[in-house]
From TrEMBL:
It catalyses: an adenosine in mRNA + S-adenosyl-L-methionine = an N(1)-methyladenosine in mRNA + S-adenosyl-L-homocysteine + H(+). Pfam families: GCD14. GO terms for biological process: tRNA methylation. Keywords: Methyltransferase, Nucleus, S-adenosyl-L-methionine, Transferase, tRNA processing. SUPFAM superfamilies: S-adenosyl-L-methionine-dependent methyltransferases. PANTHER family: TRNA (ADENINE(58)-N(1))-METHYLTRANSFERASE, TRNA (ADENINE(58)-N(1))-METHYLTRANSFERASE CATALYTIC SUBUNIT TRMT61A. This is tRNA (adenine(58)-N(1))-methyltransferase. Its EC number is 2.1.1.220.
Length: 178
């Protein structure tokens, strides 16, 4: 894997982290401006991932880095305006299958929810309106172990009222073979 970082300090930190995770021997880290100078490789990449402020400026360089047989590009952008400019650049450079997905972080807390079983009385044939006659079932056989207490408990995901973080967009495209 080749990774290119604009900031020297971030590149050094990336090298440290790759070494800590025992994959340093699989990764080449370079420091340069890919928007101005490209990636430093030609026709060898299976995929290119862009996480830079102006990804549209690097699309032509990414195309050169990708193999002749095609390849995929992915760009992360926090703003829809960046997505629009990147999609236009991808089209201009002959990329196809351009798609964008919005990525949201929405945290759900797992909670035990207790709901009271409504007493709707008996049906016309005299059966319980819940469909379960709690008096004839043992606790182990009951569909709802808390039936005698006239509540049902279950686990559920409850979203936070406020979203932490912000949205982001992933744009994917395929290098045209022709």
């Amino acid at each position: 894997m080749y990774t290119v970082e604009f900031h020297q300090q971030r590149a050094e930190k990336a090298v440290e982290e790759f070494e800590e995770h025992k994959v340093g021997h699989l990764v080449t880290v370079k420091t340069q401006d890919v928007c101005k100078n490209g990636f430093g490789v030609t026709n060898i990449a299976d995929a290119v991932f862009l996480d830079i402020p102006s990804p549209w400026e690097a699309v032509s360089h990414a195309k050169l880095a990708l193999k002749h047989e095609g390849g995929r590009i992915c760009s992360f952008s926090p703003c829809i305006e960046q997505v629009q400019r990147t999609c236009l650049a991808l089209e201009e450079h002959g990329f196809t299958e351009i798609t964008t997905s919005e990525i949201l972080l929405r945290v759900y807390n797992v909670r035990t929810i207790s709901l009271q079983i409504p007493d709707l009385g008996k049906t016309a044939d005299g059966n319980s309106s819940t469909g379960v006659d709690g008096g004839n079932l043992s606790n182990e056989d009951a569909l709802c172990p808390n039936l005698q207490q006239e509540t049902i408990q279950f686990k559920s995901g409850v979203p936070l009222k406020e979203m932490v973080g912000h949205t982001g967009y992933l744009t994917f495209a395929t290098k045209n073979l022709f």
